Every structure is written in structure tokens, then in C-alpha cells.
Amino acid sequence: MAEPILEVRGLVKHYPLTTGVLFKKQVGSVKAVDGVDFTLHRGETLGIVGESGCGKSTVARMLVNLEKPTAGVIRYKGEDITQLTGKALKAVRRNIQMVFQDPYTSLNPRMTVGDIIGEPYEIHPEVAPKGDRGRRVQELLEVVGLNPEYINRYPHQFSGGQRQRIGIARGLALRPEIIVADEPVSALDVSVQAQVINLMERLQNEFDLSYIFIAHDLSIVRHISDRVGVMYLGRIMEIGTDEEIYDHPTHPYTQALLSAVPVPDPEAREHRERIILAGDVPSPTNIPSGCRFRTRCFKARERCALEVPALAVPAEFRLTTGPAAHDSACLFAEEKQVVPPEETR
Ligand SMILES: Nc1ncnc2c1ncn2[C@@H]1O[C@H](COP(=O)(O)OP(=O)(O)OP(=O)(O)O)[C@@H](O)[C@H]1O
Ligand code: SF4
Ligand SMILES: [Mg+2]
């Protein structure tokens, strides 16, 4: 495996929960991200999946420094970037760029495409001297499959897929090494999703990019990711290669998510087991003791309320080298094939 380019350890984001208008009093906190660990290797795509509200976007925002973590470290090439300021921070930020979910709202409607894609050069003039920017932007338009002559058009003159290409071109303007893509295709039609995913794959090879790819659609994540992390209530529950997670999941939460993936083949659909997730996701202001998944877990026992399972290779798989031997935060981890392998590919 290539060397780590990004190492996230114990990443936490708690938002204070206050009452009162004049005299604000903190009465608790929203534990949006509550101890996340993962490593991104150079040139790979790490997918992050999980239900709405589990903290995916908050992780993304901390990675690109749109928000400061409450605790934890983010190491970029071995250096903790959460402590950087000034010039050093600016230099690192250039290398980690974000592509946002909604191409309809994330592009300023009053700016031309040329100004949108070239905006990062205002902050980093060292990357492209003023006289050279138009040419660079046209080059970027071409790279993402758009006509360079569109440089003076406005966002509303483009389709959703084209707008996301503009968002990607903007993300590439500073020649970053890492792209954090937060649900980059979720707002697009299914037919357009594949085109944007293919574009991202091509760009990854062309520019040697490493991706964090956030989505809630498990099939899309499998298609693009080398490894996948499954998040629940602010933490990663299970992480491994796509084969480990999809074909050999050991965590009940992953198994439940996979059991809900639509299966096109009617016969396979009839034979597969549906695991129903009990109840609703608990509030991130009030996280269950012990294993945070226990209130919805079909396997929960008494011990699960008392002990916090670590994200590590479960003891029973430690001596094996098979695909079940990957990190899973469950006290009673068991391998269970939920979906026939070909169904999520
Ligand atoms: N600025 C904020 N102040 C208070 N709570 C917040 C703030 N931002 C996010 N949260 C809460 O933190 C939790 C995680 O939110 P986040 O947007 O990261 O989830 P997500 O996994 O990206 O969800 P989705 O799939 O819907 O995009 C949610 O409960 C959300 O309400
Ligand atoms: S530790 Fe217990 S509650 Fe948590 S996932 Fe495992 S079996 Fe379920
Ligand atoms: Mg989100």
C-alpha cells in the first residue's frame, strides 16, 4: 500500500448546546463527530458512508479547515495541520480541496464560470499569475469535459451534471493532492451520476489524486472506493477494503445497511435476509453508553451498554488473515454475508 497522506486520529467536533437569549448557558453539546480515526493513502479513494446526520459533512469540513476540531489530530504527510496558522496553514490548505454536494447552490449565480473556477487564484496568486488565469481556467474546463468557450457563461446556463463539472474544475484549480468530495453526485440524476464518477476516476489517474468520497449510496461508494469506512453517530464503526466491507462485513450496523441495498435480481431479492434497524438514530446530544449502536442493534446484549468497543480487528479474527480480519467496533463481531457479492458491485 502507498504511504499515508492523511492520518486522522481521535477527531472530535462538539457544538455547544445553549439556552437563554441574553445570558447564554451551555446545557450540553451536539456530539457531531465523536472520535474518528482513519488513514488515507496516496492515490487511493476512501469512501465514507452512513445515515443522514452521522457527521460525514462535519468531518469533511474539518479536513479542509472550514471548521476547527474540538479535539484530535489531522496529519498531512506526518504533520498535524490542526495547529498550523498563517502561511504554513495556507500552503497546506492548497493541497486539500473540497467538492460540494449541491452544484445548484454551491456556485455563485452572479459570477461567470471563469470567475468561479479562477477564484482560488485570488487567494493563491502564486499558482497562476493574473495574465495567465484565463488560459488556465479554459484548460480546466477542457479537463473536466466542458467547452472552454463557455468561460463567460453563468451557472444557470448549465445542467446539474455540467455544474458539478464546474465545481470539480474549481476544486482542481490549485492542483491539490487530496480532494474531499461531500456527496458529489447525490443531487444528480442517476444517468449523470455515472458520468461524473467516471470523470472523477479519470482525473484521479491523471493528477495522482487521493479522494475522500462521502455518500450515503452504498453501491456508488463501492464502485469508486478502494477502502470504505462506515460511520454511525459520530464514529467509524467498521473500516476496510471494499471487499472486506461489502462481502465480509462483521459489524451489525454495516450488515443492516447492506441488507437494505436494493437488489435488482428478483430471485436474489427473495432469498436475502433483511435486517431491520430498530427505532430511530439517537440524538447526538445524548449518545448511548457503551456501544453507541446498541439501541438499534439486533445483537445487543448487556455487556454492550457497559463497554465501548474499540475500532480494531476483533480478537476472534486476529489470528486469521482472511477478509474478516479488519477493523470493526463490535464486541460480538461475526462475519455475515448479507448481499451476494455481485449485487453491490
Ligand atoms: N453548526 C452546527 N451546530 C450544531 N449542530 C450541528 C452543526 N453542524 C452540524 N450539526 C449537527 O451535527 C450532526 C452531524 O451533521 P452532519 O451534517 O455532519 O451530518 P451528515 O452525516 O453530513 O448528514 P447528511 O447525510 O444529512 O449530509 C447533525 O446532528 C447536525 O444536526
Ligand atoms: S457491541 Fe453490541 S450493540 Fe454494539 S454492534 Fe456489537 S453487538 Fe451490537
Ligand atoms: Mg452531509
From TrEMBL:
UniProt KW keywords: ATP-binding, Nucleotide-binding, Transport
InterPro entries given in the database record: AAA+_ATPase (IPR003593), ABC_transp_ATP-bind (IPR050319), ABC_transporter-like_ATP-bd (IPR003439), ABC_transporter-like_CS (IPR017871), Oligopep_ABC_C (IPR013563), P-loop_NTPase (IPR027417)
Gene3D superfamilies cross-referenced by the UniProt entry: P-loop containing nucleotide triphosphate hydrolases (3.40.50.300)
GO biological process: peptide transport; transmembrane transport
Pfam families: ABC_tran, oligo_HPY
Claim: DNA repair is one of the keywords in the record: no
GO molecular function annotation: ATP binding; ATP hydrolysis activity
Domain ABC transporter, first and last residues per copy: 17-258
Top-rank taxon: Bacteria
SUPFAM superfamilies the record matches: P-loop containing nucleoside triphosphate hydrolases
Key word Membrane present: no
Family, similarity comment: Belongs to the ABC transporter superfamily.
NCBIfam families (alphabetical): oligo_HPY (TIGR01727), PRK11308.1 (NF008453)
Name by which UniProt lists this protein: ABC transporter ATP-binding protein
Originating species: Streptomyces spinoverrucosus
Lineage: Bacteria, Bacillati, Actinomycetota, Actinomycetes, Kitasatosporales
